[in-house]
Design a protein that fits this description.
By secondary structure, this protein is an all-alpha fold. The protein contains 7 helices and no strands.
């Protein structure tokens, strides 16, 4: 039996949510690695590979849907937005893997706590979860919350940079790891940007509004 376009889009949405859950798991593993040097960060690479695979599969599904069903209006925006959303999710997965690799070079993990890397990870997780909740519910209000929440993450990033500058000035032990710590903060700041992009695409898919 041929599925209706509504059923196919519903299936597509479920696949996107599963892909987002992989991103969440990767971030949770990275956070565990901040306080536990024995945490298995190699698992983040496995998740990153799964995320990339999911992106390819969803992209293929979207293209078949566009070519065979010729969706119009809101359905067309939904499929088109999904193609961009999965790209942002894939970038979050890649950034999580980059973050895990950087942490392997940070012997003194205390420096990550000092510049509140765990708080930044929590903020990204909050933004990602809110984005996906908005995606599931087609909730513009929730999507807009993510866009505003990015200011909080940006503020944490600025504090991280300032904290590292202070450490360098006072020659704190382990400060040679400051460049890697700063890179970790930058990866998280980028993840926040991808959550914002995701939310903007959702708003466009719902209303066609491009004035953010």
């Amino acid at each position: 039996m041929n599925l209706s376009i509504d059923d196919q889009i519903a299936s597509l949405n479920r696949d996107v949510v599963k892909m987002a859950s992989l991103c969440e798991r990767a971030l949770v593993l990275v956070k565990e690695g901040v306080d536990n040097e024995k945490a298995e960060l190699k698992s983040v690479q496995v998740l990153s590979d799964e995320i990339e695979k999911a992106e390819r599969e969803i992209e293929s599904f979207c293209m078949r849907l566009l070519l065979r069903r010729h969706p119009v209006a809101r359905d067309l925006r939904s499929v088109s937005a999904t193609l961009r959303i999965i790209n942002d999710l894939e970038r979050i997965g890649n950034n999580a893997q980059d973050l895990a690799e950087v942490m392997n070079y940070v012997v003194n993990r205390n420096i990550l706590n000092d510049i509140e890397i765990p708080a930044m990870i929590d903020e990204v997780l909050k933004m990602l979860k809110t984005s996906i909740d908005a995606y599931i519910r087609l909730d513009e209000k929730r999507a807009n919350e993510v866009i505003k929440e990015d200011d909080v993450l940006d503020s944490l990033f600025v504090k991280a940079k300032e904290g590292l500058v202070d450490m360098i000035k006072t020659s704190v032990d382990g400060i040679e790891e400051a460049p890697d710590a700063l890179l970790a903060a930058k990866y998280l700041e980028r993840m926040g940007d991808h959550c914002v992009n995701l939310s903007k695409q959702l708003i466009w898919s719902i209303s066609g509004d491009i004035n953010f």
